[in-house]
Amino acid sequence: MKKFINSVDTLLNESLSGFAMAHADIVRFNEEPHFISRQAPTQSGKVALISGGGSGHEPLHSGFVGHGMLDAACPGQIFTSPTPNQMMAAAQAVENGGGVLFIVKNYAGDVMNFEMAAEMIDCSNATVFVNDDVSLPKNHSTGRRGVAGTLIVEKVVGAAAENGKDLAACKAIGERVNEATASMGVAMTSCTVPALGKPTFILNDDEIEMGVGIHGERGRETIPIKSATEIVEQLSTAIEEELKPKKNQPALLHINGFGATPLIELHLIYNLAAQFWQKRGVDIRRSLVGNYTTSLDMAGCSITLSLLDEDLLKLWDAPVHTAALRWGM
Amino acid sequence: MKKFINSVDTLLNESLSGFAMAHADIVRFNEEPHFISRQAPTQSGKVALISGGGSGHEPLHSGFVGHGMLDAACPGQIFTSPTPNQMMAAAQAVENGGGVLFIVKNYAGDVMNFEMAAEMIDCSNATVFVNDDVSLPKNHSTGRRGVAGTLIVEKVVGAAAENGKDLAACKAIGERVNEATASMGVAMTSCTVPALGKPTFILNDDEIEMGVGIHGERGRETIPIKSATEIVEQLSTAIEEELKPKKNQPALLHINGFGATPLIELHLIYNLAAQFWQKRGVDIRRSLVGNYTTSLDMAGCSITLSLLDEDLLKLWDAPVHTAALRWGM
């Protein structure tokens, strides 16, 4: 394993410190327990949005803390859920009279730990669970995983909270976005978790993993590599079967890199995916291409389609000022 | 080789089309000959900034086309210089009465082709050459290479041009930034050029390449992997010997990923590099961390220090609206 680290034990702390130093105008880092929160105060009564999960998916979630998006993010160790004391400390730091909305990717560990925190904090709170990964059936043991669609939930709900929507309304908007969003990914290579020191799984030189999870979970099937057009058709068809978009329905198309796939390939994937949806009459109104929900050094990408209506598109377009997403200010 | 492509021959065209579709609000793509230019018209008399070079370094340069930065970018095939007809067509498209300033990374092919274009276009023009890579001696055969510092030149000169500075002033500012900027990189792995189908060079599992170029050129030395702290010290010391920064001198610190190195590691590198400079009394006033000048799927990163004075910092801070850099608007 070759990585830029001093030791596996100090990696997360050194990295989060560096993140907070590089973006000191936007965020601050609380070291014990770990959480990232906004530098600037929020309006009194605003719903506080808190997300989190295992590290290794950067910029998710810490890179989305700032005006118009999250109030705090709780990073666990790599691919490991944060603990309830992190969410409780973050809630205490950022709650501002409007209650707390947790945005949680649907993984057993994250769900359990966020639920424990939700029970223990003494302010009003609610939770949105994100489960946009259509590679698994809906009745899969613990349900579908939350993947790259989480960013869209966080951005749209973040704008709603900034606009003064209350806790119930923010939760409802988050659930609406989650319902309207579907993703599926493909891996070219495994990632290597530093503490493990070797690839999580092995793919042969001519194989790819369709439906891979963002921690390197095996997906639907291991198949011989295909052309980019065939890969995009297979991923998009799975999304189409789930969302069943209508003609002229407005949508956001998000191509997410897992960390080691060059932008030149992600833009090619975007081209093919946009054509797929245009042929079906879907109105691609917004686009996002890049490495946002990563899996350390995994090569691969995911396609996310989110059927945002005009109201939700307005929230997507609203100003945002975070380390990883910034526009309108 | 596993990549998301349909064929090596169509990769660049399909990718540039996708890039322009995803960012249709900012750029347009001219297919024959290839160049990317701004969607929005510029103010009459503004100096037009044109850069370019081999593809495979995305988001450089196409991702920096837009308000406050470049007017056009000419992408060659992967790691191959663009041809003079691209620069000439781009110049004709974007020249707006203020002349054309070419910003060129110092590689023999790029220099030759941009010089040919400069001789043949019939508007006033000038060129800034960028050669910030300190891994090679100054008297190296064709001089030092232009690497991640190019972004800083393009951003600062872009703001000056937007503010109405004339061609000579823009050129002078570009040269001032280039003089004040030094970079050095390290590779963990080679990249794989699609047309070649195999890694450009081989590093053993315990080796890294100090001073690597952004096309996978071998650097100063191949050494056994060290701790992140030791790697940062070695890179930063080379930069220090070149720039000899004074106490309290303001600076921009840029950590650039080569494409396959996770953000969690780049933030750790930022932390260590910032400490290195702080110990020497350098005043790190601005930061940029991420994958901006990439080498396809190479794992590795570079450190860039740019001694921007107050005037240049103001230009760095000026509004920019491109696919890859966006703030203030």
Topology overview:
The structure is a homodimer of 329-residue chains.
Chain A (H helix, E strand, L loop, with lengths): L10 H12 L4 E4 L4 E4 L9 E8 L16 E7 L5 H11 L5 E6 L2 H13 L4 E6 L18 H14 L4 H13 L1 E7 L19 E4 L10 E4 L3 H16 L6 E8 L5 H17 L3 E8 L9 E7 L3 H8 L2 E2 L4 E2 L2
Parallel strand pairs in A: 3-4, 3-5, 5-6, 10-11
Antiparallel strand pairs in A: 1-2, 2-4, 7-8, 7-12, 8-9, 10-12, 13-14
Commentary on this structure:
- Two copies of one chain form a homodimer.
- The first copy, chain A, has 329 residues and is an alpha/beta fold.
- Chain A has two domains: 11-179, 3-Layer(aba) Sandwich (Rossmann fold), CATH 3.40.50.10440; 181-315, Hypothetical Protein Tm841, Chain: A,domain 3 (2-Layer Sandwich).
- Chain A is built from eight helices and 14 strands.
- Chain A has helices at residues 11-22, 84-94, 108-120, 149-162, 167-179, 228-243, 263-279, 310-317; strands at 27-30, 35-38, 48-55, 72-78, 100-105, 125-130, 181-187, 207-210, 221-224, 250-257, 283-290, 300-306, 320-321, 326-327.
- In chain A, the strands form three sheets. Chain A has a six-stranded mixed β-sheet, sandwiched between helices.
- In chain A, strand 1 (27-30) and strand 2 form a beta hairpin.
- In chain A, helix 4 runs antiparallel to helix 5, helix 4 (149-162) packs across helix 8 (310-317) and helix 6 (228-243) crosses helix 7 (263-279).
- The longest helix of chain A has 17 residues, at 263-279.
- Chain A is globular, with a radius of gyration of 19 Å.
- The termini of chain A are far apart.
- The mean pLDDT of chain A is 97.
